[in-house]
Amino acid sequence: MADNPMLKFVVEGQAYPPKRPADMRAEDFREIADRYAPEAAEDQASRCSQCGVPYCSVHCPLHNHIPDWLRLTAEGRLREAFELSNATSTMPEICGRICPQDRLCEGNCVIEFSGHGAVTIGSVEKFITDTAWAEGWVEPVAVGPSRGQSVAVIGAGPAGLTAAEYLRGHGYDVHVYDRHDRAGGLLTYGIPGFKLEKPVVMRRIERLAAAGIVFHYGFAVGEQASLDALRQRHDAVLIATGVYKARQVEVAGNATPGVVPALDYLTASNRKGFGDAVPAFDDGSLDAEGKSVVVIGGGDTAMDCVRTAIRQGATSVKCLYRRDRANMPGSQREVANAEEEGAEFVWLSAPLAFEGEGQVAGVRASRMRLGAPDASGRRAPEVDPGGELALEADLVIKALGFDAEDLPTLWGAPELGVSRWGTVLVDGKTLMTSLDGVFAAGDIVRGASLVVWAIRDGRDVAASMHKWLKAKAKAERVAA
């Protein structure tokens, strides 16, 4: 037992990388904590109990080999730890930063159940891969011999990029089409730098481009080319667009100037971080500086908006959510970070109207209470007849989630099967859509979800497409 580097949770306390003071981090968009020093990473990894049934891996959508790379880290074998973490994930350092570990791996850690505090899995994962980049251990994509077949990937978010990497590894010519001017999807334009600094994303994209994956930016399917045209141009197509249509709250004053969708607001902020010209930010429409800001919603996107507004210099930031703290969908860690930075949460409240003539001036809201559980098992909010409240607001940001766009109409592809929610229907085994050779993965199939699930879906669909493309090539050879 003396030689065992693990099971140190009884003597080594849980310690995350220290966060910068809240007043300092609220002044910039840098990540709020640096990575571990090597000794601290080894100490925290050594707390793992090496369970016979590792619930951390079971509850990770990617089923990462978490106990194994924790042990390698504890032993100082970092390059091997990186190679193992990289074996199941195309973006381990990104997942280490933005996964809600408190709901996934760390939330299901056995020593968390025993009262010793979970192993800090996400922070160790970030440390391993950041170290690998710094040391030059991240190898180029290993591109297989050319198969003479090409694949179109529509959407350069985590699902599309993951599938592109695996398919390129199999030797396919891969073309990624995205309507934005940079790849990354929500990783680039939706998630603020204080959670995910953009060079972390860009270096992944540069690695894919160096492997010969061709990126077509500013390319909107339905405008630059129809879906059918891409099918004619390529041997297979992957739809990985994500879901971008903002959900609405049907209350009076919805169209009042100063009431804006979350993604418009976050995209403007991230573009400014890149140094882009953003007229809607520069004219003040999407800039919170000097304003009283009210954010509507309780998910991680709402937390991103709250914390961005603080950094932009808002005079006050309030978050309205119709349930209580225990029933909110967002990460409790993000709520705590927002509170530390000066945000105020108005629990059990829902907007009734956005008020103001020519420019929003306030939010009239109803008090709520929790009734019986709904279909999801969460207690459903209902209006509390106890009264209303009024909040001043110069900027209201609606962070109510995202739905699928009407792809069959946008793309001129009425034969593309979609659900009543607009998500693309796929065969559960092959992940193929109603169109032969057209596959789909990520949020456009499952609805708005986590980045780690998009990576898992990209990995799965790449395997299915590889199998289908091999069969197609074989059939063509036989026919010839």
TrEMBL record:
<dbReference type="InterPro" id="IPR009051">
    <property type="entry name" value="Helical_ferredxn"/>
</dbReference>
<dbReference type="GO" id="GO:0016491">
    <property type="term" value="F:oxidoreductase activity"/>
</dbReference>
<dbReference type="Pfam" id="PF07992">
    <property type="entry name" value="Pyr_redox_2"/>
</dbReference>
<dbReference type="GO" id="GO:0051539">
    <property type="term" value="F:4 iron, 4 sulfur cluster binding"/>
</dbReference>
<dbReference type="InterPro" id="IPR023753">
    <property type="entry name" value="FAD/NAD-binding_dom"/>
</dbReference>
<keyword id="KW-0408">Iron</keyword>
<dbReference type="InterPro" id="IPR036188">
    <property type="entry name" value="FAD/NAD-bd_sf"/>
</dbReference>
<feature type="domain" description="FAD/NAD(P)-binding">
    <location>
        <begin position="150"/>
        <end position="458"/>
    </location>
</feature>
<dbReference type="InterPro" id="IPR006006">
    <property type="entry name" value="GltD-like"/>
</dbReference>
<protein>
    <submittedName>
        <fullName>Oxidoreductase</fullName>
    </submittedName>
</protein>
<dbReference type="Pfam" id="PF14691">
    <property type="entry name" value="Fer4_20"/>
</dbReference>
<keyword id="KW-0411">Iron-sulfur</keyword>
<dbReference type="InterPro" id="IPR028261">
    <property type="entry name" value="DPD_II"/>
</dbReference>
<keyword id="KW-0479">Metal-binding</keyword>
<keyword id="KW-0004">4Fe-4S</keyword>
<feature type="domain" description="Dihydroprymidine dehydrogenase">
    <location>
        <begin position="25"/>
        <end position="136"/>
    </location>
</feature>
<dbReference type="GO" id="GO:0046872">
    <property type="term" value="F:metal ion binding"/>
</dbReference>
<keyword id="KW-0560">Oxidoreductase</keyword>
